[in-house]
Each structure stands twice: as C-alpha cells, then as structure tokens.
Amino acid sequence: MAGDKLIVLDALDKAKTQLYHFTAIVIAGMGFFTDAYDLFCISLVTKLLGRIYYTKEGAPKPGTLPPNVADAVNGVALCGTLAGQLFFGWLGDKLGRKKVYGITLVLMVVCSVASGLSFGHSANSVMATLCFFRFWLGFGIGGDYPLSATIMSEYANKKTRGAFIAAVFAMQGFGILGGGIVALVVSSAFNNKYDPPAYKVDAAASLPSQSDYVWRIILMFGALPAALTYYWRMKMPETARYTALVAKNAKQAAADMSKVLQVNIEAEEEKIDRLAVEPSNSFGLFSKEFAKRHGLHLLGTTTTWFLLDIAFYSQNLFQKDIFTKIGWIPSSETMSALDEVFKIARAQTLIALFSTVPGYWFTVAFIDYMGRFAIQLMGFFFMTVFMFALAIPYNHWIQKSHRIGFVIIYALTFFFANFGPNSTTFIVPAEIFPARLRSTCHGISAACGKAGAIVGAFGFLYAAQSQDPKKVDAGYPTGIGVKNSLLVLGGINFLGMLFTFLVPESKGKSLEELTGENEDENGDISEQTAGARTVPL
C-alpha cells in the first residue's frame, strides 16, 4: 500500500500542523458561524413576531404566532437546508468543492440580509416573504455542511483530522452564542431608549413601533462574519484529493499542494491513470459494490444524524417554551415585548456559554484520543440518562425551588450532545466514503439529520402542548405535555446509541485507508476494509 500511495496525498497525511490548517478552519468555520446563527436566531424573535403581527386589541395576553405560521417560520429554513445538502453535496462531487463553496456563501449572505428586509402590507405577507427568504437561506446553509466538512477532511493530516473538522463544526456553538449576545445587545439598547411597560400595565405601550427593527437587525447580523471571509474562501485552492482522485489532474494537485505545504511534490500522472481504472475507484453510489463496502456505514451515518437532530433541534428551537413552562422565563403578559426578547436571549446565551460551546471544544480536544465511536456512544448515553432524569420526576422540577436543578440537567444534555453525536455525526461522513462520493454521502447523511430536525421542529411544537385543553397555547390542539415529550426524546436518544454500532471508527487512518482508494490491483483491499471495522477492538 505505502508504495502505491500518491506522494501528494502522503504529504498531506504526514504534514505537521501549520498555518494553512488554521486558515482553513477559520474560513470554513465562519460559514458555520453564520449557519448556526441563522438557523437558531429565529427562536429568539418568534415571540416578538407574534406580538407585533398577531396581538388583538383588548386581549388579556399578547399575540403569538398561529400554529401554521409558527410551523413555517421555524421549519422553512430546515426544509431549505435539507434540499441544499442534497443538491450541493452532489454538485460538490461533480464540479469540485471550491467552485460550489463560493455559491453557498453568497446565497447565505444575500438571503440573511433579505430575511431582515421582509416586507408586506399585512402580517401574512410579511411572514410569507420572511419564509421565502429563509428557505433560500437554508438552501445555502445546506450546501455549507458537506462542503466545509469535506474540504477540511481533505486538507487535514490523519493525526489531527478529527480535531480540525470538529473545530470547524465548533463554530456552530459560537454562532448560537453570537445570536444570543446580539439579541441581548439590540433588545437592551431599544429597551433603554423607549422603556416600555409590561403588557398587563399598558398593552399598547408595551410594544413600541420601533420593536419591528429589533427582529430585523438580529436576523441580518448573521451575514457579516460570512461576508468577511468571502475573499479568502475564493483564494483557497481545490483540495488535492478531489483534483487527483476525481478530476485526475496530477499536475494541478501537485502544484497546488506544493504551494500550500511549501515543499516540492512530484506529479504522478501515470499512477493516477493506473488507479483510475481500478474497480475500487470506479463504482457508483447505487452500485452493488458501494452497498457491499459502505451500505451499512451510510445507514449508520444517516440514522444516527436523523435521531440526534430530532432531539437536538427540539431542545434548541423550543428551549424558550420549556423555560416558560417551568417558570424560568416569566409569562408574557408580565413583560414588555423588548423585555421578553432580552429574557429569552439571556436564557439561550447562558445555556450556550456554559454547556453548548464547551461541549464542542471538548470534542476538539479529545476526538483524536478517544475516537469518534466512543464519543458518539458516550454522548447518546448521557443524553438518554439526562432526558429521563428530567422527564420521570418532571413534577418535582417545575416547583419553584427546584427550577435551577432542571436548568442544570437540561444544560448537561446540550453539553453531551456537542461532546458527542452532534459533532461526530458531522465528522465521520466526511472521512469514510470515497473522494468521488464523499460530498454526496455527507450531504445525504446531513439531509437525513435535517429531516430529523424538521420532525423535531414541527412535532415538538404540538407534542409539548398540555393535555389540559385549558392550558394549551392559542390555536393548538392538546398534546402529550412536556413530561411525555421529554420521555419520547429520551427514547430517541437511546435508539441513536444503538445505531452508533453501525458507524466505523476512523481515528488515526488516512482517508484512502478508510475507503480503499489509491491502491492498484496488487493492493490488499481486504486488509483495508477490515481496518475500517464498525466497532473498535
């Protein structure tokens, strides 16, 4: 095997950590900052949108988004993301990672700004234009998932590849945190300027007309970090693995990586031509050979991501509703519109600061020591334990003296989601599939995750409604309640733990070792595939 390995790929695998690695992390990571900011900041402003556009004069409580509108506003970006993951994942394998990478960034920046400029003469028209732009925003975000993961995996050395991909994904934590901080700053600034009273004191005055600017500023701000990295994203060379193994251009691959690594690398045109005709480098996604080699792996990456995102997005998008139900966030009529935004943002920021962000960076620190399999299994296990710990004694937690305990355990579920499957489900699909199908398979895995997110976003909204018809939110049918919803999420996390056994360990192996690429007919393929066994021994 060693003698058959392309020099350019061997050089990448053995390269010491250097500036270009960190440059790639920042460039790809800023896209993920925007991804997370834009996907999760909507949960900060949905209560405000309900007050602005759906409050009825003389009502005892401020307005809320009707169920169908709340479904659309919360879920439309996820639908766009699912479509974008499939489309751009496929396109990244057809046209190359770099060519498609710029398109996704432009789409994110433009639609992020456009979301904040949503217009119309009625509530329905404003919500319609907001949903239109958020769908296409999600479409661009979807493309960033497979492309960022694939680019980082193909640039990294094999020793620290897991940490580098995890560091890109960890910017999602800063995006969630950034959304909370921006909402805190903007709502505080407007609150100090206009000082509105609580709704029950003066309903009309509790919602200054300038509040309409607040949600727009929060939504638009996410475009800034991504826009600042556009120039550097366009300057990145195509990855050597795509250029050599997919485009079959040995000279360009050697020239690009000679410049990046600052060493002279020989172009091996004859070896690439020889490898190109080998069966291990030519089977397609829907072939029997793919099913034999990678079928169970793809089943593992898709199911675990699907199950994870049901729980993860349910928790993230609706944590404000859970905190309201346990009393950590006061009832809406006791606050002004701006004060409500501030308190929701404060809760999200605290959860992000003390559990979400640390969880991501624990993964960065330990993934190349513990391995992907162990971290994912551990994460699902503790998410299951903590969900049941919240659900079973739920009536205990909603008592005022026990609310802090509820928040701490709830925060731990976020910590182990991120020091666990939320990170590893992103990393592993970028490592275990062949270069010509890598972006596509990552896109399929990620799209299954977003299907789970859609189930979580739409399902939890209804499921968490009270079983008592008198206590449900306006316009909703009765549900199974928060307690039973948490029990269901605990069961979903347990299923994720079981499906983790289908996912191979990729720690310490080169991408070509994992996929069986880059070897001619004399290469020991059986040894390759045996090395990528599902459960580490």
Automatic annotation (TrEMBL):
Domain spans labelled Major facilitator superfamily (MFS) profile: 24-508
Family annotation (InterPro entries): MFS_dom, MFS_sugar_transport-like, MFS_trans_sf, Phos_permease
Region listing for Disordered, in residue ranges: 513-537
One GO MF term: symporter activity
Coiled-coil boundaries: none
Transmembrane feature ranges: 20-46, 100-119, 163-190, 213-232, 350-367, 373-392, 404-423, 443-464, 485-503
GO cellular component terms, A-Z: membrane
Localization per Swiss-Prot or TrEMBL: Membrane
Chief place of localization: membrane
Biological processes annotated in GO: arbuscular mycorrhizal association; cellular response to nutrient levels; phosphate ion transport
Key word Transport present: yes
PROSITE patterns referenced in this protein's UniProt entry, alphabetically: MFS
Membrane topology category: Multi-pass membrane protein
Extent of Acidic residues compositional bias: 514-524
Record's keyword terms, sorted: Membrane, Phosphate transport, Symport, Transmembrane, Transmembrane helix, Transport
PANTHER family (UniProt xref): SOLUTE CARRIER FAMILY 22 MEMBER
NCBIfam families noted in UniProt: 2A0109 (TIGR00887)
Family: Belongs to the major facilitator superfamily. Phosphate:H(+) symporter (TC 2.A.1.9) family.
Protein name: Major facilitator superfamily (MFS) profile domain-containing protein
Organism in which the protein naturally occurs: Juglans regia (English walnut)
